[in-house]
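hiii so my PI (J.) wants the whole complex modelled not just the main chain, which honestly fair. so below is everything: two entries, each one labled with what it is. i double checked the lines twice but i was tired so who knows lol
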Amino acid sequence: MLQLQAVSKRFGDRQVARGLNLQLGQGEVLALLGPSGGGKSTLLKMIAGLEAPDEGRILFAGQDLATVPVEQRGFALMFQDFALFPHLDVLGNVCFGLRERGMARPAAQQQARACLQQLGLGGMEARKVWTLSGGEQQRVALARALVTIPRLLLLDEPFSSLDADLRRQLQQEFRQQLQGTAMPAVLVTHDREEAFALADRVAVLKDGVIVQCASPAQLLAAPATPWLARFIGYENVLEDGVVPEQALQLGQGQPVAEVRRIIQLADGVRVTVASSAGELTLTLSARELQQHAANLQVGGTLAVGIDRSAMLAYSAA
Amino acid sequence: MTERRPNLALALLPLAFLLSMSILPLLRLLQEGQGQFSLGLLADSYLRWRIVWSLLQAVASSVAALLIGLPIAWCLARYRFPGRSLTLRLLMLPFVMPTLVAGMGVLALFGPQGLLGVNLQDTPWLLLYGNLFFNLPLVIRAACEGLAQIPASRLAAARTLGATPWRVFWRVEWPAVRPWLWSALCLVFLYCFSGFGLALLLGGQRYATVEVEIYQLVAYELNLADAGALALLMLLVTGAMATLYAWLERRLAAPLKVDPLPPRAPQGREWLQLLAALGVLLLFGGLPLLAVLWRAGQALLLHGPDVLRDEDIRLALFNSARFTALAVLLAAGLGWLHAMAARGSLALRALAFLPFIVSPVCLAFGLLLLYPQWTASLSLLLATYALLAYPFVARSLASALDSLPAHWPQAARSLGATPLHAFVRVSWPLLQPAFRRGLAFAAATALGEFAVTLFLSRPEWLTLTTLIYQRLGRPGADNAASAMLLSAVLMLLALLAFVLIEWPSAAERQLKKES
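here's the output for the full assembly
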């Protein structure tokens, strides 16, 4: 559906997109994941039409969007701060897009009510938006975006202003909502958990370049570069590959390494040791601790080795 | 609570001053007017026309300022162009420009033998044009401020929901800017309704306002009864308007930290929009001042600098200088006390607005009634100057005190500074730019003061403004030339005050560089 072809964008001397290519299929959710300042939000704004690319083309359903103004693209963009209109109540906010598309007021209100009901916001129609909690605001913003049945849903860090518990709950709800509609969506986030939980495919962006674009499982199984491996959460990133937890072997016969740091966890410990391959961090369950390192202490030793065959090689080596 | 007591002690002096210099005179005026007020006043068709015209010109000026100001403000807020920040700064200029200078500028353009070849004297247009000179920038500034409070994401959200730029204006920007505009329009109405200098100079026989009528009744006809009744009416209308303004102002959301839409370079036809906006702004805000300069230059070429060499001018310059200096000195003290006292007290803060909104003619009239024994005393004149000037110092300092984080002086104290040292080394350097700004405003106010001076002055207290007015009323090219030259001098002095106000201090420049 959505196609980005060699899209480049520069702000002053900062290159935020360098010849990006991306594809998005029907009903697919794509996450743009990357550190802040990596050009994710700019890319989203270019898709929405709020910024124009310096070079390259953006197509939707085969149509070049270069000359299509924002309001005619039929994409809904949901903002990090939700951007609810403070002079309108909840119902007015949700009706906004429908009214702009020329729907008569009664019909728009009926549809907006139905959408609010569906998102668990029934009875809140007349509330002022600043009296809503963060989670309610998020849902109103989502309702406002979904009610217009956009051709593409764009989400800019939609959960980042919520606290952790609420975030997880709403992410789950959101995933269900989206699966129900088969609406394609592009999600910008700096949170890998969020990207993995919500997206079918994840494009990792760094300095305006897509380092890797793959499904969460593929990303975890074969990260493209050491930087990317670290960014998606691997601890033991060596020059020739990632050492996942299952590639670390304990017990007799393994080389002895010095213990550098110990962090107590509820059900075990997290140990960092200095091995011949470099620093390694591993999590020992209470059982393993009993079995292999009964009197573990900083400055002491732990026998730990690497199973080379279980290591993950970099796909972009 | 321990902090409250010294604050009230500090407030005593400014409060006593406000009470004796504005509240009591106004009450005295109310009492005077009450005795005389009858509906018979309205039956007089001459006075009825004065009242109707006063209201009408204020409403017309407000509506025109809104219709012309809003599009200009939108262009200034949304388009990036060379000289943008200078233009935004220059919008402050009318705040320090004496009414007489503006009036002279309007006359130089559209008066008899005006530069533009159309004589609009004895039509309503002169006064409306003069009103817009002062009030259009006020509306533009308010609208720009309102537009800057709209987060860019809100505008973008509306666009992605299908709204065209024009629809975004109506459905998102206009509702957000509206509260700012209403409160600005209240002020515009208030200033136009109770303005004196412009109406006196530009209104002529037919289009003078109630304020001018009060002045004429008191000064020339000694008809205190009718003047009192009219003043009562003025007080009621301005009081109602000021209350409405205060109410609207309170409803304005406290400025939040938002990411406003950054201005962008105009493209294609947008350049035409921008140029038209700047052109209209220049027509209303710049042309009168340029006309004064032009005419003064002509006068200088024609008559030579000797026109300025006479006894009266020397006296007026001397008086203006010493009155301004003394008024600024008084304003500094009162303003400082008021600002320190007003910390944390909304009521005290609001009181500092009182001298801004009360009509100077009513004030002077009330003072004359209340203190008849002091009518010819210099101290009353100076005290009135101080009254009109000190709120600028108080407000400027109060907002600087607000933005001064309490933990900075505390940090200084914990590093071993005595309270005095903490003040001298931390607080004062941070407050000093605001103080200087307040003083410059105060100086400009005292320098350009006209209404009260006309009421309370004696011939030997001739100031620049009263001299200009005198010369304007006398026949002869020499008098006209020197009036214009003196206006130019007054304007340059106001410009100097403006530069002092707007020129960022070294510390502010540093801050700007870092941010």
